[in-house]
Each structure stands twice: as structure tokens, then as C-alpha cells.
Amino acid sequence: MKTTELDGRRRNILCQVVGSYIETAEPVGSRSIAKMLQESLSPATIRNVMSDLEDMGYLEQPHPSSGRVPTDKGYRFFVDQLKLPDPVKVTPLILNPSEKPSYSKETLEEVLENACSQLSQTSHQTGLAMFPGFSRMLFKHIQFTRVSKGEALATFVSELGVLQNKIIPIDENITQDGLTSISNYLNREFSGRSIQAIRKEIITRIQSEREHYDRLMNKAMELWSKTFSEEDEDAELIVDGILNFFDHPEFAADLKKIKALLQTLEEKSKLVKLLDLCLESDGMTIIIGQEHSEEAMRGCSLIAQTYQIDPSNKGTMAVFGPKRMDYQKMIGLVNVTAKTVTEMISIKNREL
Q1: What 3-state class would DSSP assign to 214?
Q2: What is the pLDDT of residues 307-328, one digit of tens each?
Q3: Calpha distance 256→170 (Å, rounded)
Q4: Does domain 3-81 have CATH number 3.30.420.270?
Q5: Cα dihedral across residues 6, 9, 11, 14: positive or negative
Q6: At what angle do helices 72-81 and 8-24 cross, to 10 degrees?
Q7: pTM, whole model, 2 decimals?
Q8: What's the CATH number for 87-132+235-351?
Q9: For 114-132, how does the pLDDT look when each residue is reduced to its tens digit (9 = 90+)?
Q10: Quick one: fold of 135-233?
């Protein structure tokens, strides 16, 4: 049977089963559904419909004598029927940007860490926040500070206040005055451009002026390359509330399952890859169960929404938790949090 063959009665009963299971975490029986329906149907009629839904792949029966629980297909149908809630009515515990006149003093990381923490606490799920790697950020300022013989501290600041400190090797003979001159040169030449664009420009200059560029430019290019490697292309990821998984019965009772999941979550590169895919949708993305490529994640769902950093860059806010989650509430929380973060970053951009 095809999805289009779900008539009104089947749709209604399926949604009631999914909603009840989300709320109780217990298999749902026909008598329970009979009490919920406005339409007067006997338990026997409802059992027949639930049996049809099981044959169609929307429900399954954990044990012969138990009620039904939704399959991934059942969850997907349920989610696709939902309407986005009014974000005004679903507000996570995040500071209203209008109440924060000194917002420009906060870095982007601090804003996202706060938003991710509040999203996790409000949703009781794992909160995720991703923003592009430093290579996509607009360069504002860099300072090289000699810290020992043969080492310097490179302090990078982006236009949005993103801060990165890194110890790099330097020529033992270079002085602090020399490092300051290099810092001033880079700030003068490249401020306001992305690291990605600067790297390309540096390669072009070296190739076209190989025999002519002076010693200062040579040293500046060398230190820049040591400070920003190709690894800086990677996005940054904030994860909050992983231990919330222990509060959900489907994970708390299966230590093997949760161990595999926690090991997967520790490998942030897999989560970054997942959220990178969400960026391509330019809006909200919901991934349920078997739709995940990672096997350890197939007992979970992800709800992600993009937010705007600047005209050319976006990031992602998301909740990650068991398939049995309150999708209506989670969609609203993620949606309004992403919109609030976008607004706060917009205010920051105007203040800078």
C-alpha cells in the first residue's frame, strides 16, 4: 500500500498512536485510542485499523500481546503533518536582544554557547550549535607576541569578535619589533577579508612576485601560513546536554546502545558533516531514525534550523535526541532560537 492510501480514519489513528507513544513511552493499545478519538469507534475497529497500519509499515508491535509503537515511517508521516508553531508562543530561555545593549562585548562563541545551553535545558535534549570555521570568517586583526625563543603567540580576531590563540614556531632571531611590524603589515593589507580569500591572495602574490617581494612580506606570509592551516576550513561545533540521553527510557535501559551513541557524539566531525548537510537546505531539516547515515544515530532524530551570521555565511542550531520526542515543541524551540541568534548577530554587526 502507498502513503496516499491513508484515509482520514487511518491518518487520525496513526497520529493518535504516535502522539500517545511520545507522551508515555509505552506501547499504545486500541482501548486507549478509543478514549482519545472524537469519532465513536469500537476497540475492535481500531485494532483492525492499527493492524492495517502495521502492514503498511507505519506501526509495529514489540510483543504479540502488546500495543503498537510507531516505526520511522510512522514518525515521518506524523512530523510531515505538523504545522510550525507560532514562535512568539514558544520562547526558549534566551535573552531578548533588545534587553542587551552591550551585546557587542560578547564574542560569537559566547552567544552560541549560551543559546546552545538554553536550548538544551529547555528541550531536555542535546543541543548543537555550528558555525563556519575561521577560514570563512572576516579577518579584523592579528597580533604576534614573542613568548619564548623560537615561539610566538598568534592572536586572531574576526569582524564578529571570534578569538583564536595559537602558539606557532618562529625564527629564533626575530624580535618583538619585527613581529609587530609583521602584524601591522597583515592588518593593513588584509583587514575585512576572509581567511579563505587571504590565503588565495597570498599564493597569488608569492607566485607573481617571487623574485621581488621584500623580506617583511616574506616573513608575514610565512607566519600567516603557520597560523592558519587547511584544518581551519573545518566548522566549529558546540555540544551541550549529552547526558540528557540518560533521562530517556529507550536509552537508559540499553547501556550498549548509549555507549555506541556517546562514542559517535565524541567524534564531532560526524556531527559537523551532518549539520553541514542541513546548511544546504537553507531552512529547517528533520532527520529521523534510519535516515541517518551513522548506525549509532538511527535510534535518534535531529531537528536543525539555519541562522544567518553575515550575508555570505550561515550556521546551524539543532536538537538531537531519541526518535520519541515532542516534535511540535522541538521544532518551535529550534526555530525561535535560530531566529533569535540571527537577530542578536545582526545587532552585533550594526554595533561593530
Answers
A1: coil
A2: 988 777 788 999 999 999 999 9
A3: 48
A4: no
A5: negative
A6: 110
A7: 0.74
A8: 3.30.450.40
A9: 999 999 999 999 999 987 6
A10: Enolase-like; domain 1 (3.30.390)
